[in-house]
Amino acid sequence: MPRKWTPPYLKGLAENRSRIAGDVDRYRSGFAQLRRKLAESTRELEACDSLIRRIDARLDPTQIETNMGQSTHYPDGKRGILIEFLSQELAKAAPGSMTTDELVVELQLQIGLSFVSPEAQKKWTHNSLTRQLNMFVKQGLVERLHSGLFRSNSISRWRWKQSNVTTLADLKAQVEATGGTVIQGDDDEPS
């Protein structure tokens, strides 16, 4: 049977729908993981509160100030974790792309980064994540697939540039060749 001709506008719409369906699946998976982590943390919090009340009934655990230490520091205090994470996630998604929002959700899930409020997350995203992505663009490692004029994270798409980088040593050499600096932590010995 002969193949039926598909109009370009329909083909483009189908490709767009396919990409968006992938985004929806990724977000659903992320939400499921977040729900599990929330349930686990809630159980642990309730256990702590119960133990505090048993030890001293006069204490009200809900009056204990919340410690949001991870909102300003990465877990384990590891240096270079953002650069490493972005490099790996964007390279893994290549030749596809990821939005800024997708990268934030993956950071929260994989690294355990948390924020005090949506405003704090937005500020961190702009000051840390987007700044690092723009550094990657200047170094020639990442392509910005959106206009720099937009300020909405949901339409900010990034893609790892395809190259012949096969090892971290090659990546380091490429970054240094473009004038960038690679910072390694004490436990990050080159292989």
Largest sheet descriptor: 3 strands, antiparallel
Compute the number of strand runs.
3
Major beta sheet, strand line-up: 1-3-2
What is the averaged pLDDT score? 80
Number of helices: 5
Low-confidence stretches: 69-73
Helix content: 40-55%
**Strand fraction:** under 5%
What is the CA-atom radius of gyration, in angstroms? 21 Å
Structural class, by secondary structure, is mainly alpha
Give the overall form: extended
Order of helices and strands: HHEHHEEH
Distance between the termini: 56 Å
In short:
The chain is mostly helical.
Description:
There is one protein chain. The protein has 191 residues and is mainly alpha-helical. It contains five helices and three strands. The protein has helices spanning 8-55, 81-93, 100-111, 118-138, 168-177, and strands at 98-99, 142-144, 157-160. A three-stranded antiparallel sheet has the order 1-3-2. Helix 1 packs parallel to helix 3. The termini are far apart. Residues 69-73 have low confidence and may be disordered.
Give the helices and strands, then pairings:
Blueprint: H1 8-55, H2 81-93, E1 98-99, H3 100-111, H4 118-138, E2 142-144, E3 157-160, H5 168-177
Antiparallel strand pairs: 1-3, 2-3
